Amino acid sequence: MKKIFKIPLIYNFKSTNYFNAFILNALASAAITALAIEMRYQLYQEKSFTYLFFSNFYGSRILTEKQKVFIVFLTAFFTAICVYFIMHLFFGFGGGMLTNN
């Protein structure tokens, strides 16, 4: 079977020095944090679609702080998984996180 594309898509920007490593890590952190903050902001607005979706999911009109924290945590977790996968696809990011037994 023939490969359609090779990973990483961008070859000349890897974490080969401190500057590139810091830039790539800052890019991943910024994307994860921005999406988590946006979710928290949506949960403050009681008339937003996101708030109404989760309040219906929990079966109540008002979300408690614990529910909001749990929603934001799950959002940040799944966002991190997606961001790290995309960063690996584009830059080969995360290969240094692997270890031998």
Structure description:
This protein has a domain at 33-95. It contains 3 helices and no strands. It has helices at 18-44, 49-58, 65-91.
Short description:
The protein is an all-alpha fold.
Tags for this entry?
101 residues; mainly alpha; 3 helices; 63% helix; 0% strand; elongated
Write the layout of secondary structure elements.
Elements: H1 18-44, H2 49-58, H3 65-91
Helix pairs in contact: 1-3
Largest sheet: none
Gyration radius (Cα, Å) is: 18 Å
Kindly report how far apart the N and C termini lie.
31 Å
Secondary structure: helix percent: 55-70%
What would the average pLDDT be, to the nearest integer? 89
Q: In sequence order, what are the helices and strands, one letter per element?
A: HHH
Low-pLDDT residue intervals, each spanning 5 or more residues: none
Q: Structural class of the helix and strand makeup?
A: mainly alpha
The fraction of residues assigned to DSSP E strands is: under 5%
Number of helices: 3
Overall 3D shape: elongated
